Amino acid sequence: MKIKFSIYLVSIVILFFFITELSFRLYFNETNKLKCYEKVMDERKYVNKKNCYFEEKYFEKKSATIYLTNNLGYRVGSILNNNDLSSLAFVGDSFTYGYLSNYENTFPFNLVKEINKIQNFRNYKEINLGVNGYQFEQVLELLKLDTPPIEKSDYIIYGLTPNDLFDIVEKKNNKTKFNKGYLDKLRSGIYDLNLTSVKFFSMLLLKSDKNYINIYHNRGNDSGYLNEMGSESWDYRYSYFKEKIASLPNSLKDKLIIVIIPQQIQVRLLKIGNEKDALSFDNKIKKICDQINIACVSITKEFAEINNYITHYILDGHLLPEANKSYGKLLAKKFFKIINE
């Protein structure tokens, strides 16, 4: 009798979950992840696909995101001929690319838009070379290739995030010392399942600053990058980053500007007043940049305050469109100051 009841109960639970998942999928109507990529035979491993058009629906966003690349594979808002303008090249990962933001809300577009409003100042066009998922090594390879957009641009702006350094690892006895962290594993597992209902309820859990910080930050050295800032593995990453950036040709270094893109955990920590942990990455990178004479910009605190600490998709972790736009506008002020020093 007990066995029959258990089977009946399990069947009810499975049926309930199936109905719930089906309802969520029909309601949110999510599409598959962006797939505008093609493989290449160098250290970049892959690049944006040329002439790609894709509309993506994601449950944390009401409207679809539109992605468009030109015949060179760069993300654009429209196919226009503005080759007569000087250019600013933007390199980096999905934050630079503008994942889950339409092009007019990306920070490269808005930084250039704000700069071009300044009277008696040179007009620019932006070349967005960001690629979803790129790590530091891939960006480094892109810079070394010195393609025409890199070579001919007046400045190269690298949108750096802490997770760009995740692939910089120290190996001892053929063992990697790096642990990606609890929340990153959890998030990866959730996305691998691709269950909208699970993602939705996970998002509700992470809405709470307390829950988010406890999961992402307050679990010891294995929890995530902000708790590992003083660890040996991160010391290695910083020294490797410094060595590789310093070894770039002067022709690249002279026009390189590193901008540190705020992560959600940093904004959450600032919200509860933990400025020390929130800005630890920014302060370390700025110190390195000063040592090797590279321009570097951090506006994490100002950015968080201006946007009332509502800056990122809760589960996905990328910048919300309006926050992305705001970040570009704030950067424009710093950029103008740097190039006029």
Model description:
The chain has helices at 2-28, 94-97, 107-115, 136-145, 148-152, 182-193, 196-206, 209-216, 232-246, 250-253, 264-271, 275-278, 280-292, 300-306, 321-339; strands spanning 37-39, 46-48, 53-56, 65-68, 86-92, 124-128, 155-160, 171-172, 175-176, 256-260, 295-298. The strands form four sheets. The chain has a five-stranded parallel beta sheet with strand order 6-5-7-10-11, with helices on both faces. Strands 1-2 form a two-stranded antiparallel ribbon. It has a two-stranded antiparallel ribbon with strand order 3-4. The longest helix is centred in the N-terminal third of the chain and has 27 residues, at 2-28. By secondary structure, it is α/β, with parallel strands linked by helices. The protein has one domain (37-173, 202-339): 3-Layer(aba) Sandwich (Rossmann fold), CATH 3.40.50. Helix 3 (107-115) packs across helix 15 (321-339) and helix 9 (232-246) runs parallel beside helix 13.
Question: What name is given to the CATH topology?
Answer: Rossmann fold
Shape: globular
> How many structural domains?
1
CATH level 1 class label: Alpha Beta
Based on DSSP secondary structure assignment, what is the total number of beta strands?
A: 11
